[in-house]
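Margin note: ligand = FE2/S2 (inorganic) cluster.
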Amino acid sequence: MGQPTRHFFVCTNERPPGGKPSCGARGAAVLQRLREGLAAHPELWGTTSVTASGCLGPCFDGPTVVVYPEAVWYARVGPSEAAEIVEHHLVGGAPVERLRYRWPDDG
Ligand code: FES
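Resulting structure:
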């Protein structure tokens, strides 16, 4: 396994109910989808990583994913969005523009 050149981080941070929202189980489901996508493509194993992460910041818009080195952010990722990210970004190498999250000060 070489050094990854593309790295997907998926927030799975879990907070107690009643406070600020967290990606939690919904993030874990996204993580699972991405892992399955990577598992199905051995040609990517040497260059692509998928890793669970703690809170990435946009908790109110979760589940949240960030991809480096592109610094492409995705938010509100559900099962169908996760499938699209797998197909187009993880396997295809191109960000899914429609699903990109823009930070408030991001122009
Ligand atoms: S809890 Fe997932 S981004 Fe903060």
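The mean pLDDT is 95.
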